[in-house]
């Protein structure tokens, strides 16, 4: 059996649009999804802005009774996965359910439920805490709910490695298919952590942007005046399928997943290694895993958080990997528009990368008005560019020093 792995479906719930097409059109048009927080009163917080998902109606994808027993992050995960299944033209009655699985990545999981039920405990006592509190909160339940709704009985797991979570999830789903343990995997990242406690925690760390008066300009990766990332929520799901399985059923094919690399800085709990050593190894591992050379890479979807330390480090790591070729690459940050989806960011950016390969377009990095002197590469400022992308890297880096890189490329027989 041919164990090459293809992307055959994409589902997105994002601050810039729900559904693959809405997401993609917003990306190439450079539209920001950042605005003042509406979910709760954030006036006392240093950062009062976020990338909230607007107009989300999980009733379109889930029975209402089931939705009420899920945290928002699970609702996002299931909805994105159902969209991806529909996009992939999978017929559930013909699917080998025992050979189909799910891996979910989420950095925080059901924190909305955690905060809500803690308030119930404090105000009304332990007898009033919901019996669904634990199964709504725990992070693995996102993967479990996707499997339950779609009847997927193959490998099922979750990854929680901070902002690298869903890149790891995609990479581990890739490995499952490569070693023959399944024929189809849903790799999904989901996060719904725009809550009072989570926002307070990130504000206390001084990690967030405080461009409160100009929300749409707040996420500004690689810009000299960047001052932190912007929290966001949402989910993205990719259908990963073996070439043999995809071709047997005549599936639509967006791209091929060719390589995966992971490493750890072993440096600091939140700050990246300033020399970019771990990020450098992550990219090199992925290139080697794909059997490619550095000249075969045309585009990088950067982690690009808009924090002073990350953007400088990532630019340095790219230069270490690619040397002079670094200046010929196109690089862009999806987070400039969506904000930072934490554990779901990797899947969202993988979707953006795959769509770029499929449509031959590199989406822009918006709000890049004055480049940092340490960030001197081509970040595709402000406007999308048409370009044939042979192979692309999607990078994710997370608290704890986690690093992950995926390589997607054009599918050719």
Q: How do you describe this structure in short?
A:
By secondary structure, the protein is of the alpha/beta class. The protein has 13 helices and 15 strands.
Describe the structure.
- It is an enzyme of class 2 (transferase).
- This is 3-oxoacyl-[acyl-carrier-protein] synthase 2.
- The chain is an alpha/beta fold.
- It has 2 domains: 5-249, 3-Layer(aba) Sandwich (Peroxisomal Thiolase, Chain A, domain 1); 261-404, Peroxisomal Thiolase, Chain A, domain 1.
- It is built from 13 helices and 15 strands.
- The strands form 3 sheets. Strands 1, 2, 5, 6, 7, 8, 9, 10, 11, 14 and 15 form an 11-stranded mixed β-sheet that branches. It has a two-stranded antiparallel sheet with strand order 3-4. Strands 12-13 form a two-stranded antiparallel ribbon.
- A hairpin with a 3-residue loop joins strand 14 and strand 15 (402-409).
- Helix 3 crosses helix 6 (141-150), helix 7 (165-178) crosses helix 13 (345-359) and helix 10 crosses helix 11.
- The relative contact order is 0.19.
Topology, please?
Elements: E1 5-14, E2 17-18, H1 20-28, E3 35-36, E4 49-50, H2 64-68, H3 72-87, E5 100-105, H4 111-124, H5 133-137, H6 141-150, E6 156-159, H7 165-178, E7 184-191, H8 196-204, E8 234-242, H9 243-249, E9 255-264, H10 277-289, E10 299-301, H11 308-322, E11 330-332, H12 335-338, H13 345-359, E12 361-362, E13 385-386, E14 391-398, E15 402-409
Parallel strand pairs: 5-6, 5-7, 10-11, 10-14
Antiparallel strand pairs: 1-2, 1-8, 1-9, 3-4, 7-8, 9-15, 12-13, 14-15
Protein name: 3-oxoacyl-[acyl-carrier-protein] synthase 2
Catalytic activity: a fatty acyl-[ACP] + malonyl-[ACP] + H(+) = a 3-oxoacyl-[ACP] + holo-[ACP] + CO2; (9Z)-hexadecenoyl-[ACP] + malonyl-[ACP] + H(+) = 3-oxo-(11Z)-octadecenoyl-[ACP] + holo-[ACP] + CO2
Pathway: Lipid metabolism; fatty acid biosynthesis
């Amino acid at each position: 059996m041919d164990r090459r792995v293809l992307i055959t479906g994409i589902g997105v719930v994002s601050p810039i649009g729900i559904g693959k097409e809405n997401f993609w059109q917003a990306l190439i048009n450079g539209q920001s999804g950042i605005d003042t927080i509406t979910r709760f009163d954030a006036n006392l917080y240093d950062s009062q802005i976020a990338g909230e998902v607007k107009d989300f109606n999980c009733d379109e994808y889930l029975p209402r009774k089931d939705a009420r027993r899920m945290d928002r992050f699970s609702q996002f995960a299931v909805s994105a996965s159902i969209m991806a299944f529909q996009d992939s033209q999978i017929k559930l009655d013909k699917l080998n359910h025992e050979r189909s699985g799910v891996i979910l990545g989420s950095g925080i999981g059901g924190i909305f439920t955690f905060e809500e039920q803690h308030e119930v405990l404090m105000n009304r006592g332990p007898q009033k805490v919901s019996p669904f509190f634990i199964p709504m909160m725990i992070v693995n339940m996102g993967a479990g709910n996707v499997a339950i709704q779609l009847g997927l009985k193959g490998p099922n797991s979750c990854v929680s490695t901070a902002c690298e979570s869903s890149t790891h999830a995609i990479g581990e789903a890739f490995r499952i298919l490569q070693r023959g343990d399944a024929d189809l995997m849903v790799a999904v990242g989901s996060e719904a952590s725009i809550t009072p406690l989570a926002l307070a925690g990130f504000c206390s760390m001084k990690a967030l942007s405080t461009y409160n008066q100009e929300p749409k300009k707040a996420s500004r990766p690689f810009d000299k005046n960047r001052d932190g990332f912007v929290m966001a929520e949402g989910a993205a799901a990719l259908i990963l399928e073996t070439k043999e399985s995809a071709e047997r059923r005549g599936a639509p094919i967006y791209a091929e997943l060719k390589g995966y690399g992971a490493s750890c800085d072993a440096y600091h709990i939140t700050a990246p290694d300033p020399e970019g050593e771990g990020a450098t190894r992550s990219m090199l591992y992925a290139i080697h895993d794909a059997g490619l050379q550095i000249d075969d890479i045309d585009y990088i979807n950067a982690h690009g958080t808009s924090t002073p330390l990350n953007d400088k480090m990532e630019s340095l790591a790219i230069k270490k990997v690619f040397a002079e070729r670094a200046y010929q690459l196109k690089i862009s940050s999806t987070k400039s528009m969506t904000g930072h989806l934490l554990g779901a960011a990797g899947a969202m950016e993988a979707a953006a990368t795959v769509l770029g390969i499929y449509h031959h377009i590199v989406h822009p990095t918006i709000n890049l008005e004055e480049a940092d002197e340490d960030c001197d590469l081509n970040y595709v400022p402000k406007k999308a560019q048409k370009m044939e992308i042979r192979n692309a890297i999607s990078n994710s880096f997370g608290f704890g020093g986690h690093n992950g890189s995926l390589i997607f490329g054009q599918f050719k027989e």
